[in-house]
Task: structure prediction
Amino acid sequence: RNEVHWGTSPACGNITGEPSIFAHTVHTMKIRGLTAGLQYYYMVVSDETESPLYTFWTAFPGNETIRFAVYGDSQGDWDDWQTVLWVAQAIEKERPAFVLKPGDLVDDGRNLTNWLDFFAASPFIHNSTVYPVLGNHENYSHLYFSFFSLPFNERWYSFENGPVHFIGLDSNKRNRYRVAQYLWLIHDLQTHDDPYTVVFFHHPLYSSSEHGNTTILQKIWAPVFEHYDVDIVFNGHDHNYERSIINGVTYIVTGGGGSPLYDNGHSPWTVYSEKTYHYCLLTVNSSSLTCEAKKPDGLVFDSFILTR
Result:
């Protein structure tokens, strides 16, 4: 017996069961009949085991305010996932409706123990929807695709929430030069006209740190972002924080999710950079986007506002 009990009150008056009769260990449930912009309660029942009561938010209508977090690079083997947990607990206190993860969730995506450790060190995940993209450490593992159920082909995809159109891309070498992804990106940008557009993928086009710029993608993707007025591009890969502005597009490296930190640098395009663990918290309505870069102790060390 595998069920999700859910509803708009803690009583969870609805039950959705898994249709499959085959025994397996990773379960996917599709809940229908949800209303946009509502908080739902849920608990998971598997045989005689019941989870605690959790909540999730459905996607908000375009005229409502949304609040979400972004942070990358949470490979935690080096210190038994303690720093990853520290950052994740800070995010949990924010209660964001959802969280973007620009890659490198684990040290080795082929290692099941890594994934179990990541989920144990990510307590926010019970109450905030998670949208990841592939980093180089995921290694295109079947475990990644088992643990996450993502839109489109799961390697690149888009979705809308509130006044924002979100685009997740695969910047790994296997797909970064794929014509199919490039044409999909252009078509997706052409066919959406939300007040704000946020793109996220793993390898930064612009970085002043250890890995540096992804120069070929600068030539391929940056002109597209500029032409279609993308507002913010979030990346990881370099384990620190850097905000840059190039040709009207804001680029943020947010690789401070718990991996060992890299020294930060500074380039002509750099607005702010710091070697620190952190996450980004965004609040967006139809006329303004506010981004706060926060350390796990709650200190806001960089912030900016974009207006429409």
Summary: DSSP finds six helices and 18 strands in the chain. The two ends are 50 Å apart (CA to CA).
